[in-house]
Amino acid sequence: MSGTIKSCLAAYPRNPKGFYAALIELGGDSHVFWDEQLEGWIVTGHPECSSFLRSPALGRQRLRLPRISGAEGLIDFADSILLAQTMFDDSPDAAELRREMPQPLTDMDVHGSPCHVSQLTDTLAAAPRGDHVFDAYSEMLQPFVSRMICERLGISETDRLSIYPLIMRCVRFLDGKLADMMGMLESVHALTVLYTIAASRIETSHVMEDQRHRLISNFLQWLVAGHESPAFALATIFLHWPINEQSNGRLTASRGWAMKMALESMRFDAPVQMVGRVAIDRLKVRDATIRPGDRVFIHLGAANRDPDIFDRPDEFLIDRSTSPVITFGLGESSCPGRSFAVRTIADFLQIAAAAGSWIQPISETLEPDHGVAGRGLKCMPATLRRWPITVEHMGLRNE
Ligand code: HEM
Q1: Nearest of 58, 27, 25, 62 to residue 42 by alpha carbon
Q2: I need a labelling partner for 268 at 20 to 30 A (CA). Which of 35, 259, 316, 363 fits?
Q3: Which residue's CA is the nearest one to ligand 1's atom 36?
Q4: pTM exceeding 0.90
Q5: Which atom in ligand 1 lies closest to the alpha carbon of residue 277?
């Protein structure tokens, strides 16, 4: 059986069930296949992905951008930004730096900012209901997530609006969504402009020159890494959790309900599709042999649909008793924005539910925008519906 992630995406752009089934079939009994376009192994089984995420036999894949004649200076600079980011760095001091990530995003106790909570509440209250169609993805979900992240990083709303297009260009690059060299150049340019803006605003007088570059580069990583994924997880909920069937037409706005929705959504269609590593030692995956230097992509999306681990993997079930979800990676190197992401998604759901509002997508007009590394949407036309609600404990600061 041969194929690539891109061919599976092209065959099933709107159908996650078909897409993951095609990937799992390519993995076959070995739970791994060679992707000729990515020039690397794609690991699809849950047990193998879980053990690879923690394996010392795999290191971080360093990114090296393709050279383009006439743009060497720009590309070299963008390369140096990416290489300074902990995501692509295996050295011991990268591990140290990872532990010093911005507190406002890793703090477990912070709930939705009162300002953004009331802003979303007002938006929902003012939004026309009934048959009025709007793009819920770019008008509601993406701005909410973006505001939450930028506020935590100390970026004002005016600045956020002006840098938002630059951030989204970088997101497209990281998610593997660029179709051509021109797109890549635009992203590289956006990254370097963001760097210049960040460098003029972040306080770095207390660190040495080489530390300064790493600090700014990592700030950008924090800014960009979580911009698309929570918005896509929210869209997945509205697309795949039919409120009328599973909830008897009622919403229960408890924190527990919202957290369970967030976790099942990220299992159902992993927003970050895979984690790239490089083999340091020889590895065996059933009957396949991975050699030192080979690129390895741990496919979280396929692992989250492994039928040997998840009962009825293609169904959106919020009451799963076992959920070894590996959507955020595992161990030391797993996503540091994990709890912030889950809380942001849960906040949105609780605010919407408390307002008795629910986004009802018009699925036939949905425009997907999936990359090999990250899922996303171009737009999600939807209407806003009013639903009866049972409010339990809200757990938001502006109650
Ligand atoms: C649905 C939401 C999210 C998902 C599914 C997700 C998933 C992931 C995954 C799989 C990784 C790679 C882990 C590894 O290499 O083993 C990662 C890394 C990272 N994520 Fe997230 N993430 C999400 C949201 C966020 C948010 C909201 C932020 C910050 C605001 C964030 C910041 C980061 C950073 C900085 C890294 C790189 C860490 C490092 O290796 O140095 N993520 N994320």
Answers
A1: 27
A2: 35
A3: 335
A4: yes
A5: 15
